[in-house]
Design a protein that fits this description.
Layout: E1 14-19, H1 25-38, E2 45-48, H2 57-70, E3 75-80, H3 86-98, E4 103-107, H4 128-138, E5 142-147, H5 158-170, E6 175-178, H6 184-196, E7 202-204, E8 206-207, H7 213-223, H8 229-235, H9 242-262, E9 267-271, H10 276-285
Parallel strand pairs: 1-2, 1-9, 2-3, 3-4, 4-5, 5-6, 6-7, 8-9
The protein binds flavin-adenine dinucleotide.
Residues 49-50, 52, 78, 80, 105, 107-110, 127-129, 146, 152, 154-155, 160-161, 164, 168, 177, 179, 206 line the site of flavin-adenine dinucleotide.
Length: 295
């Protein structure tokens, strides 16, 4: 009796959606279809990721600038410190500011070669904390940062990782968005620990719908997310049944959100992978309905 039924959820939640910059014209079309489909739900912001090693610098910029120009959705640009001098970063963020973008998701990023050790660029920002400080000095952006309920793989321990998150918040970030996770208790434990640590800013769970079990487990391994044993069982035998798989993925993500809601969570960030339907269905089940003013 601890969780409300979907039908009783009043829709008192805020959502945001994450996209990645498209590589081809076909992918561009898919992205814009997804943005148009999700826009009526009135997300408080939509964000666009930055490719490893800064490889999508132009594409991320073009996508975010187009969202700012052509929709009324608040657009956020992800930005990393990888392979960039401070001057490079300043150039990028000045262009965002000039394009009317007011929100940056500030990240350290990962080494360009998979599995390598991160090394700061000698003329750049060493980590996300420094990047947040640099952005703050440059323009009054709204800044989001990353948080890790299961601890960042480079961090010696959870306490150290929380200390790093606290430094990022103290440097001027307004919210943390979490890496994806699959058990609600993972999030609740982290939220409690962060609060005990004196982090009182909002911590928004990042929700990853499992559209492709194999690729999600691969990603999870790289970023230290635990894939519970029951998940393999849930997706087994569905490789050749994409529609059944979609339904299972939606149910699983909606159930996670429903339990987070029961624990007081009212803000959710969805990793859409540039597809609208799953995120739309989950939002719908959580009581979110189209707002009058769409994009
Ligand atoms: P930081 O917060 O700087 O820290 C990373 C680790 O290093 C932590 O363990 C921290 O404790 C440790 N550390 C940092 N500074 C110090 C210090 N001075 N001394 C000791 N230890 C230190 N990646 C992309 O490439 N593009 C994206 O668009 C992108 N978007 C993301 C969005 C979200 C919501 C999340 C959760 C992650 C995203 N990432 C993205 C992945 C992210 O870049 C990686 O997880 C990266 O390894 C860490 O980035 P960070 O900003 O969390 O780093």
């Amino acid at each position: 009796h601890d969780s409300p039924l979907f039908a009783s959820l009043p829709g008192d939640i805020d959502v945001s959606f994450e996209f990645f910059p498209p590589k081809s014209d076909r992918m561009k079309e898919q992205l814009w279809d997804a943005i148009e489909a999700l826009a009526p739900l009135g997300p408080r912001f939509v964000s666009v990721t930055y490719g490893a090693g800064g490889s999508t610098r132009e594409r991320t910029h073009d996508t975010v600038a187009r969202i700012a120009r052509e929709t009324n959705l608040p657009a956020a640009a992800h930005l990393t410190c990888v392979e960039a001098t401070k001057e490079d970063i300043h150039e990028v963020v000045d262009a965002y500011w000039d394009a009317g973008v007011r929100h940056i998701v500030a990240l350290r990023g990962d080494p360009p070669e998979k599995g390598g050790t991160y090394a700061a660029h000698p003329g750049g920002y060493a980590n996300a904390e420094e990047l947040v400080k640099g952005l703050r000095e440059r323009h009054p952006f709204e800044i989001s940062v990353a948080a890790y309920p299961e601890c960042h793989p480079d961090s010696p321990c959870a306490q150290d990782d929380l200390a790093n998150l606290k430094r990022k918040m103290d440097a001027g970030a307004t919210r943390a968005i979490t890496q994806f996770f699959f058990e609600p208790d993972t999030f609740f434990r982290f939220r409690d620990d962060a609060q005990k640590f004196g982090i009182d800013a909002e911590i928004v769970p990042g929700i990853m719908p499992v559209m492709n079990y194999a690729s999600v487990t691969r990603m999870a391994k790289m970023c230290g997310t635990d894939v519970p044993g029951w998940m393999e069982k849930l997706f087994e035998g569905l490789d050749d049944r994409p529609e059944a798989r979609q339904l299972v993925a939606a149910t699983l993500a909606a159930e996670l959100c429903r339990r987070l809601y029961a624990g007081g969570v009212r803000k959710f960030h969805f990793y859409t992978l540039n597809r609208a339907e799953l995120a739309y269905a989950i939002c719908h089940m959580l009581g979110v309905r189209p707002k009058e003013k769409a994009a």
